[in-house]
Amino acid sequence: MTAGGAWGLEDRTRFGLAVARQGEVPLASLDQRFAGGSSAAAGAYALAGGFVSHLLRRHGPGVTGAILAGLADGLPPAEAFHRATGETLAAAEASFWRRQTLWHRWVPFLTSSTALWIGVTLLALWAIRRRRERDALLAARWEAEEAARAEASPGGAQGGGPWVH
């Protein structure tokens, strides 16, 4: 993920959708999700990418190399992480989830194609409803005009008209 470069809008959108669907997922459960179906794996990649991006912002681009160097030296993962970042994995995870504000969670979702199509569908349904309301008002107006004409014509509402005498 580090080698992949900067996190783009597509990555943020995937992350936002994963968080919206799954909520705060413990990072320890990601291994199980990677082994799950394609949807679970995609969500796990998005969440892992979000966490790695968070680490890079907080500790700089060398943090992943420092963690890997600690592992190469034979340190347990928790200790390698602590030496590279100066914090425990639990503290880093808590910090990560606290940072996931409205901006990081909802803006990517709201700018996604899914949200666009939901908006288009809602707009179409609203337009259909308005059109039906206008059509019903127009039909009621026409009926009222016809009733007024029938009452105003000679012979009244009996339908006699001027040609029937």
Short description:
This protein is mostly helical and 165 residues long. It has helices at 9-22, 30-34, 38-59, 63-72, 77-85, 89-99, 102-110, 113-152.
Write a structural description.
The protein has helices spanning 9-22, 30-34, 38-59, 63-72, 77-85, 89-99, 102-110, 113-152. With 165 residues, it is mostly helical. The chain has two domains: 9-105, no CATH class; 117-155. Helix 1 (9-22) packs across helix 3 (38-59) and helix 1 (9-22) crosses helix 7 (102-110).
What kind of assembly state do the chains in view correspond to?
single chain
Strand % is: under 5%
Supply the number of helical segments.
8
User: What's the number of structural domains?
Assistant: 2
The backbone outline, from C-alpha atoms, is rod-shaped
Q: Whole-number average pLDDT? A: 83
Distance between the termini: 93 Å
Mind summarizing the main beta sheet?
A: none
Runs with pLDDT <50, length 5+?
Answer: none
Give me the Rg, rounded: 32 Å
Q: Could you state the order of secondary-structure elements as H and E?
A: HHHHHHHH
Output the structural class: mainly alpha
Q: Helix amount, in percent? A: over 70%
Q: Tally the beta strands.
A: 0
